[in-house]
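Re-run with default settings, no changes from the original entry. Doing this only to confirm the output is reproducible before filing.
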Amino acid sequence: MAMTDVLANLQPHTVWAHFAALCAIPRPSLHEGALRQYLIEWAHARGIKSLVDDAGNLILKKPASPGCETSPGVILQGHLDMVCQANAGTVHDFERDPIKPQVRNGWVIAEDTTLGADNGIGVALALAALEESGLVHPPLEVLLTVNEESGMDGARGLLPGTLHGRRLLNLDTEEWGHFYLGCAGGVDVEVSHPCVLEALPSGYVLWRMEVSGLRGGHSGIDIHRGRGNAIKLLADALHDLSEPFDLHLVEMGGGTARNAIPREAYAVFAVPAADTALLEAWVKDEREVWQEWFAESEDNIALACKPVPAATAAGQADAFRAIARADRDNLLGFLDSAENGVARMSDDFPSVVDTSNNLGVMSLAQGQFRATFKVRSLHDERADALADKLILHAVSYALRAWKDGAYPGWMPNPSSSLLALCQQVYTAEFGRPASLQVIHAGLECGLLAASHPHLDMISFGPDIRGAHAPGERVEIASVARCWQLLKAVLQGLAKG
């Protein structure tokens, strides 16, 4: 596959060539088949053994370098899929269109969509290791999982005994200079409710309210940065509006992924035509309050409210029906008051979030309401407790709620022999030790440890900013340092 011109001159060339191939092949969660097939053919052409397990994961195997056959095997691990987000007004079909990377001031960036550096750079590093000539290495397995971003289904479905290596390098963290030796576990909370629909009264005008311009971000890594949640802001506005106005709620929507802080949300509602001037004044005042409130974290926040074209309630009963007042009050009360954001900071790791939740996706269409929260914690029991609290909160508003998609965290092992070797290599290569950290995001290491408890694991990666949001970028120099470290670690492991 031809390398895009914008990445062709970047170093290390092999890593960026692989990343260019990943940018060219669409790979949203649950649609990794084309990329997997491309990689199978790539491996076959190089004599690298490949297999696909029952969960859809791709495993590539390469024998040890001569003389290193008795060294314990090493697994390089990443995931094939990416989070797909685009700015409002950007026309991009993530199932068909390639990602369009640009180089800006030492970073590779996708300006209007997510870039897929999470975890495309990790995958590219692993593939480059498989074909690097002259690299001394132990027996290598490259595990490339599927559907990590929307359910961790690949890691969840990996059968015990599939992997034979004893040490695993996860290449899915996003801050250079740190070795990660633990991560948060998580669980989703799903909420639903069938609403009673009613005809709109005569003399009412339909409006569309939109919240936009928010930065969004990764619901684990960025949850503590004070960024606005578009769904929460919309619910707050509608809840406040429902007191002075006779508001009939027709439709709502916001967010596209449970693990991304929602950047945009909207609602369609009807109020009396006589209240038009009052509504416009209220929206203007609310917008100014938001802009002051988020002055330091959201400089582009926007709140707009416009009449739905040619749509008044008169004669529109079949096309537009609102939910009953009791349902409106329950939904808005629940969304407005539900916990969102940081619940607890870590006692053991300064500045690291221990427990949080993100209201990531919400919809109300034709009376059917759905919402999804992403709960995370460094302690599985705390994630479970917060999820139970959210469920009880939903039930108090007469909504149905349940837990889904739970996965375990990865408990730190400070006495890891792999960690000790990696620290020794890092210090030799860069003149200082790496810091040790845990990450408030879901890596697949917890699930891999459940199916392969013998594994000694560590994670590292380059500097990636804005993962899970348009404008995602990765620092070029840190990718080169990751490549330098990966090669040195593999050579150190090969020599025992």
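Residues 74 and 167 are 5 Å apart (CA to CA). The domain at 5-184+409-494 is CATH 3.40.630.10 (Aminopeptidase).
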